[in-house]
Amino acid sequence: MNDFEASITDLSHDGRGVARIDGKTVFVSGALLGEQVRLRIRKRHRNFDEAEAVEIVTRSPHRVEPRCSHFGQCGGCSLQHLDAAAQIQAKQRVLVDNFARIGKVEPENWLPPLTDEAWGYRRKGRLSVRAVAKKGRVLVGFREENNPRFVADIAHCDVVHPALGPKIGLLAELIGSMDAAADIAQIEFAAGDDTIALVVRHLKPLSDGDRAKLIAFAQEHGFAIYLQPGGISSVHPLWPEHPRLAFRVPAGEGVDDVELEFQPLDFVQVNAGMNRRMMLRTLELLDPQPHDRVLDLFCGLGNFTLPLARRVADVTGIEGEHGLVARAGENATRNGLINVHFHVANLFEDQRGTDWARKPWDKLLLDPPRAGADKVLEYLPHRETGRIVYVSCHPASLARDAGILVNQHGFRLKAAGVMDMFPHTAHVESIALFERR
Fold this sequence. Notes:
Elements: E1 3-7, E2 10-11, E3 17-21, E4 24-29, E5 36-44, E6 48-58, H1 84-103, E7 109-110, E8 124-132, E9 137-141, H2 168-176, E10 184-191, E11 196-202, H3 208-221, E12 223-228, E13 236-239, E14 246-249, E15 258-261, H4 272-286, E16 293-297, H5 305-309, E17 314-319, H6 322-334, E18 340-344, H7 355-358, E19 363-366, E20 387-392, H8 395-407, E21 411-419, E22 429-436
Parallel strand pairs: 4-6, 7-21, 11-12, 16-17, 16-19, 17-18, 19-20
Antiparallel strand pairs: 1-5, 2-3, 3-4, 5-6, 8-9, 8-10, 10-11, 12-13, 14-15, 20-22, 21-22
Protein name: 23S rRNA (uracil(1939)-C(5))-methyltransferase RlmD
Domain TRAM: 1-55
GO molecular function: 4 iron, 4 sulfur cluster binding; iron ion binding; RNA binding; rRNA (uridine-C5-)-methyltransferase activity
């Protein structure tokens, strides 16, 4: 294919440069905003093309040398070639653009971006496993950036928890030595404050020898090993017999932290340091008072619910997954909290007939998945609700829902800002405060 020279005029939502050639949008891997590049088209589509930068003609002043030698091959990160300050500025621009373009709203105040450690932050993730006959070994890693059907050939990862990231090559050697090398599909990892769990998904029963190898590896490196022979319900510990995963979350100045126990496949925030910072900002924005009644929607394990219970009269958490709700209740009991209640409900269906939906909540906390909370906003909040904090993992759905809250429910978008939950990726996590007019 022919090469083209083009100017990069923007960054896409996934961190690729954006150019236009003959009036058609082209997404360019490896290119940064403001650069002049030579690019090669890899795939053509009706409305856009995909390309890779083969030469940087004019470099961005924010371009840096990627720390990881696997950058460009591994799809785990897309922005290691952009300096940290420019990364967070790019995410802020995405949020600004989405508010203006989708929600048609603008916050009265922009919050300073929240950042934390940029390396070794990832405590949760899924590593793909593939036995490659041509290489005569097993690969363990994230999917390739430009060929997601393939597993990137990596030996370490600088963004994964430091107890695991440098040992990915050792993990690959372990799997390669097992009888079941071709029958292991993936390894999920989850790190608590004191324990790192590896969940081995195997398609056939493991031999006694393979089980012994996994146990020896766990003992040598301090991991807990779980096996997953089938669906999520089949996950069970191999070693030790009763592993414990838990992390602590701050409940604010002068108040005891809370500790949340979880299972290795439970949803928890990927970045432990950012989760703590996010919690403190959420508490600051929500401004919980001793008399407040708070509703926490999409509450999961109680990541926000339990710290709030330390500070308010009553808090109720709603979550769609039964297992998470059960563990949230157990965590409340374990932390001695009696003013907190949890209910199972599908928040993408109409729940206005439930007791919790009819109560007059003073404050509302929303932390939905990518789809956002528009279904909930058809019947909440009530007039008694004076303040809402919305934590978002997708700026487009936040912007849409902000428009609903401002234009249909009579709120002001008081403040908003980004949080760098996934450094070196284009993922945008954000938070917004809404106050009743």
